[in-house]
Design a protein that fits this description.
With 267 residues, the chain is an all-alpha fold. 75% of the residues lie in helices and 0% in strands. It has one domain. It is globular and about 65 Å long. The two termini are 36 Å apart.
Length: 267
């Protein structure tokens, strides 16, 4: 009788995803392409605002920091949902779960490969920003680890919700992997304070972890302080969102298995 959870099976799944990544140079290039393009674009925008806006000049690199941290959230979500979609495109879910693989092991392997893809993509852009713009996001120090972790976890939560919807509605819902994350961008306060939003929309913004992260980032850059309250609020919300995302995924997976949908994934 196989154990309820096997680290070896998780490692085998991670190795499978790494082989897929290694065997396709377009996939490797894609991990660094979009973060780098955004970093270059916003780097030039930052250079423009430094000479034209006292707000940006007061904290050099605020826009670069924002775009790099936003990409952590974006890449983390894609690292879960797109990898899962690749299994659906290959019609491989039925084969995977004909093996001893458990749903929780698939979840664990998706988390690991999402972390790897996020570090590869955002790390490349962050390192290139140093020689190109003489700005290092690593100057944020230890708060950067808190920002990164919170955005990573929130991206995972959204990713598993999307995976659940993909199982329920098939690949016809694949566009959700690309549009869902951008739906929260305007209320995350990426490039402007939450106070800029209409009053009624601020309440919505404070209900998502990313708003606390970007407000915390500006506190570090402008006020040179780490706001523990913002950090803890993000942690609490992330705990709820990640739990909900994984529970929804397990619930939909159970329904899909009972109805035989794992063998019928499609449009």
């Amino acid at each position: 009788m196989s154990p309820a959870f096997s680290v070896r099976r998780v490692a085998a799944m991670v190795l499978r995803y790494l082989y897929l990544l290694r065997g396709s140079w377009p996939r490797i290039l894609e991990q660094a392409y979009w973060p780098t393009v955004q970093m270059i674009m916003w780097g030039f925008i930052t250079q423009f605002f430094v000479t034209n806006s006292s707000w940006v000049a007061h904290a050099a690199g605020v826009l670069l920091s924002a775009v790099l941290l936003w990409d952590v959230l974006f890449r983390a979500q894609l690292g879960v949902s797109v990898v899962f979609m690749e299994e659906m495109f290959a019609r491989n879910l039925g084969h995977l779960f004909a093996s001893p693989l458990r749903p929780q092991e698939l979840v664990a392997s998706l988390l690991v490969i999402s972390l790897f893809r996020t570090l590869l993509g955002v790390g490349t852009a962050a390192l290139l920003a140093i020689p190109l713009y003489r700005y290092s996001i690593f100057d944020l120090g230890l708060p950067l680890l808190g920002f990164f972790t919170n955005l990573l976890v929130f991206g995972w939560a959204i990713g598993f919700l999307i995976c659940g919807l993909l199982l329920r509605y098939g690949l016809g819902a694949e566009s959700l992997a690309w549009v869902a994350i951008f739906a929260i961008a305007p209320i995350s306060g990426i490039y402007y304070p939450i106070s800029t939003l209409p009053h009624w929309l601020q309440s919505v913004a404070w209900a998502i972890p990313s708003s606390y992260v970007f407000e915390g980032m500006r506190a570090v850059l402008f006020e040179h302080r780490f706001d523990r309250e913002l950090f803890l609020n993000a942690v609490v919300l992330n705990s709820v969102y990640l739990a909900v995302g994984i529970i929804v995924f397990f619930w939909v997976f159970r329904i899909a298995r009972v109805r035989g949908l794992l063998l019928q994934v499609g449009e």
